[in-house]
Write a structure and sequence with these properties.
five-stranded antiparallel sheet; 22 strands; AMN; five-stranded mixed sheet; transmembrane; signal; Alpha-Beta Plaits
């Protein structure tokens, strides 16, 4: 049996003061023109159609007069103070000369793992302007220790289909209510709105805890990386832009190849990610010669390899991705120079910041230029070389004994 249409009238309170990191962009508000097939909000002479089999929650901010309205079998209207509906009395409406049928758009397609549907915000909830720092694509979607906000006075519907059974978050704010404990979130899920707002096989779980490690925490979206990239490429034409450089880099957690530079830093228990990021921004990135360079820095898990074979195990590293706004043959050259400065800084001061070594890769638009630099000698490399030397000596000894007739 279907659940009947629910009309709730509530006083909407301002959002609680909480450290919000990522904010959901789409909404299913009645007043949002893009939510209607005609690209406008219904007016008095219109007949409003909600598809009967589509589940939806709709926030209504103002009072409306309508000719008729067809409601779905399962949904809700969330009415702000003073909002409501009344039958059109036939009087002249200057903004609605010719009526028609206006249909509510399908809200099923909005995916939790679509990076284009999230935006970074300050702890106050204000939009954070795009600056010198950016995030790799997997980290544009809420990570396991992030705070998530669905703006006050908005309704929404989001598909949580995931490769993970549980999607962990620090907190979720819905309709101005901050839910920052497992108990408060569990209580909200039992209410009437949650099934209309969230659908899909992934279960959202609020933990109330932030990253416990000063060296940073991996995002936790790697399992849904293919889903994130599919959503991102679907929004941008289903293919990555062609980079200028002939051998683009592929940062961990990023969907498309980039020109510029990447650095992988090995660290000790003394490493503090925020402290080191502040140093890079203040001492290097802020220099006038690097005005067009953008940087992403985070902890990632890099698969271990031996003789080109990828191991099942992985090791945490601090990944720094650098890109610049230079074009043509100069693409990536400013990022390359900054990467070289960072590596020099690591050589001189890395130990004081808990950095035990680093490796750099570069791809620029000038030539087929893919360079690698390192301020530490890899133990694997040393072991490989020594192993090959002993192997050659062993085979040489066997060949010598064979020719002497000592071996048959």
């Amino acid at each position: 049996t279907s659940v009947g249409w629910i009309t709730r009238i509530s006083l909407l309170l301002p959002a609680a003061a909480a450290a919000v990191y990522k904010q959901w962009i789409p909404n299913t508000n009645f007043e949002t023109a893009s939510n209607w097939d005609k690209g406008r909000v219904p007016c008095a002479r219109d007949v409003v159609h909600f598809e009967k089999d589509k589940v939806v929650s709709v926030f209504v901010r103002s009072p409306y007069a309508l000719t008729d309205m067809y409601l779905p079998l399962n949904g809700e209207l969330v009415l702000a103070a003073g909002a409501g509906f009344e039958a059109f009395d036939g009087s002249w409406d200057p903004g609605c000369d010719s009526g028609g049928t206006v249909r509510f758009a399908d809200a099923e397609q909005h995916s939790w793992f679509d990076p284009t549907l999230w935006q970074d915000v300050f702890p106050s909830g204000e939009l954070k302007p795009s600056g010198r720092m950016f995030s790799v694509d997997e980290e544009r979607v809420p990570c396991r220790y992030d705070d998530v906000i669905f703006p006050a006075e908005t309704s929404f519907r989001v598909n949580t289909d995931s490769s993970q059974q549980v999607i962990h978050l620090r907190s979720i704010s819905v309709m101005g209510r901050a839910l920052s404990t497992p108990e408060s979130w569990a209580g909200y899920l039992q209410g009437p709105s949650a099934p209309l707002q969230f659908h899909g096989n992934g279960t959202l779980q609020v933990t109330g805890t932030g990253c416990p490690d000063k060296s940073g925490c991996a995002c936790g979206n790697a399992a849904d990386g293919p889903r994130i990239c599919a959503a991102l490429l679907r929004a941008s034409g289903k293919q990555c832009p062609v980079p200028v450089c002939q051998s683009p880099l592929q940062p961990l957690g990023h969907c498309c190849g980039v020109c510029g530079a990447t650095i992988n830093l090995d660290f000790t228990p003394d490493f503090d990610l925020q402290k080191y990021q502040d140093r890079l921004v203040q001492e290097l990135l802020s220099q006038p010669k690097y005005t067009g360079v953008q940087m992403a820095i985070s902890k990632v898990h890099k698969a271990q390899t031996f003789l080109g074979i990828v191991s099942r195990s992985s090791t945490p590293v601090i990944q720094v991705v650098l890109m610049d706004d230079r074009a043509g043959a100069e693409t990536g050259t400013a990022a390359e120079q900054l990467a070289a400065d960072i590596m020099e800084d690591v050589a001189q001061h890395g130990e004081a910041f808990g950095i035990s070594g680093g490796k750099m890769e570069v791809a620029t638009g000038s030539t087929f230029s893919r360079q690698r630099g390192s301020h530490t000698l890899s133990r694997i490399t040393v072991g490989t070389v020594m192993g090959l030397l002993f192997g050659l000596m062993f085979l040489g000894g066997i060949l010598f004994l064979y020719r002497k007739g000592k071996l048959r």
